[in-house]
DNA sequence: GTGAAAGCGCTAACAC
DNA sequence: GTGTTAGCGCTTTCAC
């Protein structure tokens, strides 16, 4: 019942613990014969190395923190999968916290990460600037922080994984125009997030280019949920502002908007077409399926994990930014 | 940059490490004055206890394994949240793996958990019997296993958190009948899962009771995804079997079914009404919103965590089954 | 009330 | 090629 340790093997084989250790680690300074005996005994007695001891010795916790705004949509789960692909085989644990889009909760989560002695933190933040002080504080402790999707204000020098929100947003809006839409609503994300600004800017640029920009078509929300999407469109309708399409910051917002329109018996995409940013299965689980900018989430997770590893291995490794490509996927909603 | 240890405090204050330790642990055998000095110094130098050392010493990894079939839907995330509520404050890490509904992947995941020296495993399994040998093997190592939602065959004595699938299924089907439906399709889950059998039995019982049971209305799937739901209904339509409603094993299957029907311009709920088992936001993100048996997922996670804790504290603690209540939520799809 | 020392499981210098 | 030993950071006897 008790765990078998290297000491048990040592007694069992009348060998020193160091020889056992060496044999297990494939050190060359071990007789082939001996190694075999050790390996056999280890197998037979069911020896499993004690990671905690290893970690204590190496001074690492072999734990990575993963801090995300939410896990209600599959967005974070997909990124997580990518991170796991890279880190599990290397023996890293991943500890996850959700911030519920609240910078204060994010703060607490980051403190938790510090207590857990994580070797690095991979984070999708809630607010561009509000927690900059802790990000800096944590990095000063020697804990690398890797940002993905939503990144902090330029003033912080950190590694990050992003897509080009500005360009992708422009492309999507231009596509809507090419399908004949002129009154394109933009449901913007929380303005405390740089991506929201970038996507808004892309939207603006195109509408200005085609000379159809109208301030009234921009709808603010104070949150990112389905309900916020619904409310946004509800407001717009009540203000009697005509529109023929919607470009939403996220698929969740888009789905909320769509749901409300369908309740109002508005036909999609005939009367109103809808597009958004996504990368999850959600886009294709609704009817009609949503046209969206499909972010390569799993790949983004893998990239973030790699960035974390390079900082862990060498803390002076210069920060890098990985720009991922995202694909526009045209579905039935446009 | 280097971590402050108890030794640094010891040097700094010219006290032995044991006194420092005692002061930090609020041991009574410390002069109040001394304790104060220690606490102040700890604060000032930024001392943070090294969890790894603690764990080595206590023989625990303070890590819990969480093994789920998938993280595409928010199902597992919600349970995870509940587990975190209980375990994070206690200093436990949680390591998560997805099995992709594949018992072989689940096996590998469980082995990974063993390697990670987890103190307990909380699992939603892929197949009722196929991995019983490892479950037993793991428990024989002294690692408690807590099952939730999908549980192993009765032959295993384990702690579990479940809802009454049979009853809830019956209630939902009876509700459909009361809304005037007579040709109720059941999309069953994988038969390697006890829940699928239970829900099927509940369905059968009611249809038999009302004398409207028809074997043809039961649709098998070989998976749990959205696409499987679509395919199931496609098959049914191609076989020209008339029906006026659907009761699906899961919301994902229901959404697939609904999506296909909407594509075929079938009106919901007028021509076909739909209900399923759920507990996630998905049910209300589609149009029309899905009627479903709403499982208390976060609460289930909390319960599972409690069960894990009692087994960790006392390995001989008898296994318990917690039966949670689930609510029938009537939405627009019926 | 405080200190010295052992020990948790393992690796890595250092001997031989 | 193998053994001895120190040490990772901490708690916990055991002395005093």
Automatic annotation (TrEMBL), chains A, B:
This is HTH-type transcriptional repressor CytR. It holds the Pfam family Peripla_BP_1. Residues 4-58 form the HTH lacI-type domain. Keywords: DNA-binding, Transcription, Transcription regulation. InterPro entries: HTH_LacI (IPR000843), Lambda_DNA-bd_dom_sf (IPR010982), Peripla_BP/Lac1_sug-bd_dom (IPR001761), Peripla_BP_I (IPR028082). One of its GO terms (molecular function) is DNA-binding transcription factor activity. It comes from the Bacteria. PANTHER family: HTH-TYPE TRANSCRIPTIONAL REGULATOR GALS, LACI-RELATED TRANSCRIPTIONAL REPRESSOR.
């Amino acid at each position: 019942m008790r765990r078998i340790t290297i000491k048990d093997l040592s007694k069992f084989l009348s060998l020193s613990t160091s020889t056992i250790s060496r044999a297990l680690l494939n050190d060359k300074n071990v007789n082939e014969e001996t190694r075999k005996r050790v390996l056999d005994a280890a197998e037979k007695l069911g020896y499993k190395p004690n990671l905690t001891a290893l970690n204590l010795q190496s001074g690492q916790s072999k734990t990575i923190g993963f801090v995300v705004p939410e896990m209600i949509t599959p967005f974070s789960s997909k990124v997580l999968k990518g991170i796991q692909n890279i880190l599990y085989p290397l023996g890293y644990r991943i500890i996850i916290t959700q911030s519920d889009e609240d910078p204060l909760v994010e703060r607490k989560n980051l403190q938790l990460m510090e207590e857990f002695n994580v070797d690095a933190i991979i984070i999708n933040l809630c607010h561009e600037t509000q927690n900059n002080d802790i990000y800096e504080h944590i990095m000063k402790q020697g804990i690398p922080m890797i940002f993905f999707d939503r990144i902090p204000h330029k003033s912080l020098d950190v590694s990050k994984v992003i897509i080009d929100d500005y360009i992708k947003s422009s492309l999507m809006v231009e596509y809507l125009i090419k399908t004949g839409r002129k009154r394109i609503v933009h449901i913007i994300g929380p303005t405390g997030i740089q991506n929201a600004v970038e996507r808004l800017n892309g939207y603006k640029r195109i509408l200005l280019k085609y000379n159809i920009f109208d301030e009234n078509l921009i709808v603010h929300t104070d949150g990112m949920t389905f309900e916020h999407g619904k409310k946004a469109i509800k407001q717009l309708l009540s203000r009697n502002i005509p529109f023929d399409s919607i470009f939403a910051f996220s698929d969740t917002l888009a789905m909320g908007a769509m749901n409300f329109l369908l309740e109002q018996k508005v036909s999609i995409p005939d009367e109103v077409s809808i597009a958004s940013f996504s990368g999850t299965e959600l886009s294709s689980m609704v009817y009609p399926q949503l046209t969206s900018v499909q972010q390569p989430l799993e790949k983004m997770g893998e990239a973030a994990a790699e960035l974390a590893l390079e900082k862990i291995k060498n803390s002076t490794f210069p920060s890098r930014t990985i720009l991922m490509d995202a694909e526009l996927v045209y579905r039935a909603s446009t």
